[in-house]
């Protein structure tokens, strides 16, 4: 089966823009500050596994989940596109998205036994509402258009990059100036805004045609 590389690149770009592993490196270092290298690697491994499982489940079963609530993908695509657009606007303004940023009272004491790998690192910092909306929409499109292999290829490529960023975060953090993080955040915001507009446009076209 020959993959649709354009669709794979689109998946990779969407995931990279919305999870933004480069901008999340300082967040990872902040959450794991004072921990040993072995502990940081364990946290990175658990977070990566949680993100991978979440992405696979959302892409494969997202449409079925919506169907259980009596929602169509076009309805969800419009709401998801609006949500992704709000996240993109926050990124363009250089601020953290409220949808992907847990409140202080939800964090608790970092000294507790609470495993930060799953919460808040994997959820909601990486697999937040925007990621959920994007994966459900693209997963449905891939199944309908017979592009499941292309979806898997793009998602696997992104997860490989994410793994490198997580496990090499302590090393990358030494050479990552704040300006690079700020530029990456705004660039990803532009890409994410374009994806959000496409999602909403596609949804409106389908709804008005119906």
Supply the key terms.
single chain, 210 residues, 79% helix, mainly alpha
How would you portray this structure in words?
With 210 residues, this protein is an all-alpha fold. It has one domain (5-30, 37-105, 114-204). Helices cover 79% and strands 0% of the residues. It has ten helices and no strands. It has helices spanning 5-19, 21-31, 37-68, 73-92, 104-107, 117-126, 129-145, 148-167, 169-172, 178-209. Helix 1 runs parallel beside helix 8, helix 1 packs across helix 10 and helix 7 (129-145) packs antiparallel against helix 8. The chain is globular and about 55 Å long. The chain starts with a helix and ends with a helix.
- The percentage of residues in β strands lies in under 5%
List SSEs in N-to-C order: HHHHHHHHHH
Give the helix level as a range of percent: over 70%
Sheet/helix structural class: mainly alpha
Radius of gyration: 17 Å
Task: Tell me the distance between the termini.
Answer: 33 Å
Largest sheet properties = none
Mean pLDDT: 87
Layout: helices, strands, pairs:
Elements: H1 5-19, H2 21-31, H3 37-68, H4 73-92, H5 104-107, H6 117-126, H7 129-145, H8 148-167, H9 169-172, H10 178-209
Helix pairs in contact: 1-7, 1-8, 1-10, 2-8, 3-6, 3-7, 3-8, 4-7, 4-10, 7-8
Summary?
The chain has 210 residues and is mostly helical.
